[in-house]
Amino acid sequence: MSRTCCLPSAEQRTPPQEVACNDCGLDPICQVLDYAESGSGIPDGILIRRMPIPRGEMLLAYNQPFRAIYAVKSGSFKAMTWDLSSSERVVGFFLPGDLIGTEGLAVECYSYTVRALEASSVCRLEIDALPQAGRSREAIQDALIAMLGQEIAMNRMVTTSLIQQNAEQRLAAFILSLARRSGIRGLDRQELGLSMSRSDIASYLGLARETVSRILTRFHNSKLIELRKHVLRVLDRGALERLSASS
Amino acid sequence: MSRTCCLPSAEQRTPPQEVACNDCGLDPICQVLDYAESGSGIPDGILIRRMPIPRGEMLLAYNQPFRAIYAVKSGSFKAMTWDLSSSERVVGFFLPGDLIGTEGLAVECYSYTVRALEASSVCRLEIDALPQAGRSREAIQDALIAMLGQEIAMNRMVTTSLIQQNAEQRLAAFILSLARRSGIRGLDRQELGLSMSRSDIASYLGLARETVSRILTRFHNSKLIELRKHVLRVLDRGALERLSASS
DNA sequence: AGCTTTTTTTGATCTGTGTCAATTAGTGAT
DNA sequence: ATCACTAATTGACACAGATCAAAAAAAGCT
Which of B60, B74, B65 is CA-nearest to residue B24? Predict the structure, then answer.
């Protein structure tokens, strides 16, 4: 039950917000692995804890062969693909506790490129080495299946809302989703770091960046949020919720 | 390798378009199961082949506990959920060869309601009974993981296009997707049965049904498609492809 | 610091698509 | 067949949001 985990980093400057192992999406698998080794910790070469990733660095690339899945410990990332017209398109953001690359489990290659939006850190789980890692493959597979299922369910919800909501609703839902995910992982629910650019948000939500900007200031003016530089504070969660739900 | 499969149905009236087992999404699993029983066929109570489902009938319901996954043999289905304002929303269509309910593997309950759009037939795979079905659970799990991964990859592509394309592009992409899927499953690539209503298409694509109607007739007038009653014939696939890709 | 470059904001149009309304076609029942 | 009811088409109009353009603010760089 007690795992060798989350030792303080070498440099004592603690990164802004770091997720605890219990709250991390990788935890089910870490648990399985640790049970295997029963107390002795996870063998080297399978799980690397807390790799630092500098801002702007590419964590993994589209079509690159699948090797590992990552869990965000601190910081944030964006995932992008390119459509036929070679224009970039943001398909998701990863916050502390989120898993990156899970779908590679099935497709053999990563299906998007992931880049750090700020100085971040991740845990890296080597998939190739997994089968040798003692302990039943079954348990690991079960955990993976559950993770993939989660992913599918979440994707459907996101898609559904994006498609039928207008710009204001999309933004409200987006902000709430950031807050909710932050909350689930045991981090601050009100004060969010908007590490991504307005263009990234616009691309993700299928809007023009001007629209994103306009609506954010509209929210700001009606006291729904407070927004200075890249820190967003949720002032009236109820109002946002009503907005995003209204048909 | 040769499986007891796809015997002609009791009634000799062959349904319009039926997918062959080799082309079916369930095939990987059927193969695993059949290997287990090595020639003797799949034991009763695990896989039910070719259940007929009448038009309009509900195959499974939202929030109902997960029991089985289905593969469409013939006909077609639509999946729907409801948003907070209790309005129906179509989240997908299932054509011959498609799998229905896979995500239940992870979530324990179906996350949408599925209804037959026409007289159809499915194969039903009982999940509860699987573990006892001889043969390694591992192989089955691997197949499931692959299936889920496919689902995720496809969902992302669909979402991406829906979000950033305009109405014309969405319709073009939708038609092409129907044709492509039909082709993959070994069925007719040109002549498609549009078993769903314009409202269903509109809901799925996030458009008004008037818009769907208008654009379909526009396509018809420019000789991209031929459209009589509920049969759609692709006349100029290239043009549709160019349309759906143009930024 | 000062400079350049990028990002964000704000304003002014223009257009695609939703909405409302009316007609036509299709479907199913008796 | 005829009727009733639903689905699909077509038109007129309004408005959300894209696009174009320019100013303001932030971020990098030397």
Answer: B74
